[in-house]
Amino acid sequence: MKLLPVVSVLFSVLLAGPAGADETCNSPYMANLIKGQEDYVHVWTLGIQGVGNGQDKLVTIDVNPASPKYGKVIHSVSVPGRGDAHHVGFTEDRKYLWAGRLQDSKIFVFDVGTDPAHPKLVKTINDVVDKSGFVGPHTFYALPGRMLVGFLSNPRDMGGATGMAVYNNKGDVVARYPNPTDKIGDVQGDGYGYDLAINPGRNAMLTSSFTGYNNYRTDLGKLIKDPAAMQKFGNTMVLWDFKAMKPQQIFSTPGAPLEVRWSQAAGDNWAITATALTSKLWLVRPDASGRWQARDVGAIGDPAQTPLPVDMSITADGKGLWVNTFMDGKTRLFDLSNPEAPRQVYEKVTGKHVNMVSQSWDGKRLYITTSLLEHWDLDNDDHFVKLYHWDGRELNQQWKIDFYKEKLGRPHHMKFSAKPAPNVASIR
């Protein structure tokens, strides 16, 4: 199974130019963009035994301040069982939301376009491991007519060596790509995977790395005390020729680099990531000769305390970066005016522990959730979605929804959507 014919067909469309995205981590090829006020936030939520029906679910919150239901849960749709619900991603037309589980590797497809206030489950992909050859669907990245899915593990040894698969929008695998385990240049590939993101102007895709099933399904306290297990985390990023889907360079980035964020500012040509275990920011950009380089450009908090950076959101102008750290419950802002030397300018404790951070395109609103992984979450019931307003100096909390009190479970990943606007231009 090969992707070259698929990418050749898509490539001219992709290079025609992305229009941007409402959340700065989304694929730049999505339609129906929201550059104004989002109406809803969809939250992919872990089911917890004894909390409500105990099932994983997609929860919808009304977030338009003009609505009488502002800051309230207005809908939830459960899926059978629970399996470490993790990340979600839109198809390129924003009509469908793909949601993955890390335990059983199922993918659920929700119709969020027909009635965004009341999503419906329309398809369950049960044969993910058999058809893709990988375990733990993590990142869902929209391409025209396709969904690029990055995985965390493999069925052979349930370790971190993994890869990517391309699905058509019907849910069929059309190609698969293992991450490199050979040496490219001076760096040995470890095959690990986590996030992926594309810079279409440079035909460049970056992938990052984390750990495999055996680790992410182990209790965090037990994992930390196991020296052998702690050695089984990814320490590389890979630069791919996106058109050919071939790895071009491997970068040594010790400590499990997680989210990949390309600057979307005009003229910028760099990406940034954070290493979870070493609490460092890493910059990836070409040097004066045009060869891509990755280097450590700064610390996040005190690395000796292992604050565990888990998610980050780059501002639309590429000049700021919000970073959530799980262990200390802090949200930090870094000035990226000079990406070679990020500078922390703000921090706030936003929870006992925090995970995901989603930022509106205008930078005025920050949504925060708490859950990291089913077996890594800290032993407390403070699980929430919060909205903060950023006035340029301070994060001001607007509301908090207690997911345990609402009997929903543990909130993880979020995506924005808006009310349909018939016969109106798609960009608000």
Automatic annotation (TrEMBL):
<dbReference type="InterPro" id="IPR008826">
    <property type="entry name" value="Se-bd"/>
</dbReference>
<comment type="pathway">
    <text>Organosulfur degradation.</text>
</comment>
<protein>
    <recommendedName>
        <fullName>Methanethiol oxidase</fullName>
        <ecNumber>1.8.3.4</ecNumber>
    </recommendedName>
</protein>
<dbReference type="GO" id="GO:0018549">
    <property type="term" value="F:methanethiol oxidase activity"/>
</dbReference>
<dbReference type="InterPro" id="IPR015943">
    <property type="entry name" value="WD40/YVTN_repeat-like_dom_sf"/>
</dbReference>
<feature type="signal peptide">
    <location>
        <begin position="1"/>
        <end position="21"/>
    </location>
</feature>
<keyword id="KW-0732">Signal</keyword>
<comment type="similarity">
    <text>Belongs to the selenium-binding protein family.</text>
</comment>
<dbReference type="Pfam" id="PF05694">
    <property type="entry name" value="SBP56"/>
</dbReference>
<dbReference type="GO" id="GO:0008430">
    <property type="term" value="F:selenium binding"/>
</dbReference>
